[in-house]
Amino acid sequence: MDLVLNAADYYFFTPYIYPATWPEDSIFRQAVSLLIITNLGAYILYFLFATLSYYFVYDHSLMKHPQFLKNQVYREIMHSVQSVPWISIPTVSVFLLEVRGYSKLYDSVEEFPYGWFRLIASVLSFLFFTDMLIYWIHRGLHHRLVYKHLHKPHHIWKIPTPFASHAFHPLDGFLQGLPYHIYPFIFPLHKVVYLGLYVLVNIWTISIHDGDFRVPHIFRPFINGSAHHTDHHMLFDYNYGQYFTLWDRIGGSFKNPSSFEGNGPLNYVKKMTEEKRNSHTVSGRNNEKLFNGDFTKAE
């Protein structure tokens, strides 16, 4: 995060915002700057990619599902907008530790033997490590003593849209994002890779709420996609994972997505629409017969 902070200082904060007497390495100034950067970045990522997903990926026929709430999209957006600033406060405290040099983030690939191999391995390590922690944190948030206080607001949306991706209770949102911040304090990670992964995991979070169930067949047993997560929202006790199905299989919480079996929410909407169409067709034919005198009053 220091790369972003340095760029913001150079191009914006130092020349235009802060007085010259306020040094760039002041911990209070860094905290304020990170708070601004984190909120702006979160809103930009959220509105940009959730909007793209909503208009170009999300199947709007899902909005006809009986469990889709009135004014749901507006409510999802408002919930997210109100939660992000509160989620950013503890998040900034972790970013501040990174900026102050307490993490294992590094600048140069050449700092370590087998630098490029280590860099690629760190990406895979990051994904598997965070997926493991998020699984257990997420599952813990479903415990009956915790759920109603923290995680229940996110499960209001039984048929989520991409705008539900950040609609969390603030503490819930921070806890599920915490593994991303823990990793660079335990394992070395390149700063640019860390930023890239942070952006990608936000996009992934949006994508698993997009209601689009197309997953390449070869990846279906391994990838926890939107089909898995939609069933999680609807059925509660299954598919807690973030990227992979591994820990759901280990923890006994894996469920093959209902949409893969032809009985998902989109299948339900299509069936419901077809039944209405057939009902209208039959009704129209009966009215036509009655108009033509084909029906006579029974004696």
TrEMBL record:
GO terms for molecular function: delta7-sterol 5(6)-desaturase activity; iron ion binding. GO terms for biological process: cholesterol biosynthetic process via lathosterol; negative regulation of ferroptosis. Pfam families: FA_hydroxylase. It is found in: Membrane. The keyword Glycoprotein does not apply. GO terms for cellular component: endoplasmic reticulum membrane. PANTHER family: STEROL DESATURASE. This is Lathosterol oxidase. It comes from Balaenoptera musculus (Blue whale). The gene is SC5D.
